[in-house]
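User: Here's a chain of 318 residues. Predict its fold as tokens.
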Amino acid sequence: MMDMEDLESKPHGMPPLSLLTNEQKVQWVDSVSAKILENLQVNGDEALEKLHQDLLVLNTEDQQVQQLKMGDIYHCPQCNKTYKVDTWLRKHLTKTHKWQFHSDSSLEESTQCSPVSKFLFLSLIFRDTCNAYKMGDGDRIVRNAYFEWLIDSSLGHTKYKLWLWRMISYCISILGIERSFEYKWNMCINLKGGISSNIPNDNGVELQVKQIKASLNTQGVNKSFESAKRVCMTTQIIDEMADNLIKEIKSVKSKRSRPPVDKSKDIMIMAKCLRNQGSVKDMEWKSFKNFKDPLQKINAVSLHEWIKNQKMIANLYL
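Assistant: Prediction complete.
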């Protein structure tokens, strides 16, 4: 909608937002949103009417289920079995007595497009997280960590799930307000390249380790634990001395950067493929009939049990 050639290009037709009032900014965002909705074919009276009808059907079904409740217990009208939760009664009626609820059929229909929607959702999270690290935006990094933690939990990535959980725990509970703020806004380091040239601290450690290994290799057979310890303690100091010397003599500083691993081009290729297929809403994915939303795979009981165990470990070691 912005006539952008790729993700890195600047959008065309952007008004001078700094000169606009808040009302004018809202009007411009509304106009752009309307164009996007029109392109995706998700707006219009027909879509709203269908949504209204679906809500009416769901409301009627809920009323019917509530009529089967006596006190705090739900009674099956056909076999007189009792249940404490309405969802258990719905499952019993669906499996045993072949009842069909509109919510179940609508959920089944919605899963046909869920691979596309989930791909777009995860792509936006990935894109926003990469940009947050480049800009050193700690708020966005932690905010996206909530979604990433849930997704890693559902897919069984234990190492990343633990790392993200500890990051969130440090920010909201373990550290105080001042230290939490400092931790949140120091998740990146800058390679002295200006804005949008920040890299995660993990990548900074990789650069440091690479430099330490290069220094140790110059010692040949004289390498020892003590020499490695001395190199680790003096590497950063030597870098600072070299930077100050370069500034004084106005020499040219050699660049030191980690090659960026950017998957944005892959996302653009896949997004273009989806656009070439037509409207995302009307696409049929017969090969993804068994697809299940990753977040629906989460077992709430086991997840909270895992959180409880991690709290006990945190009380002992953190």
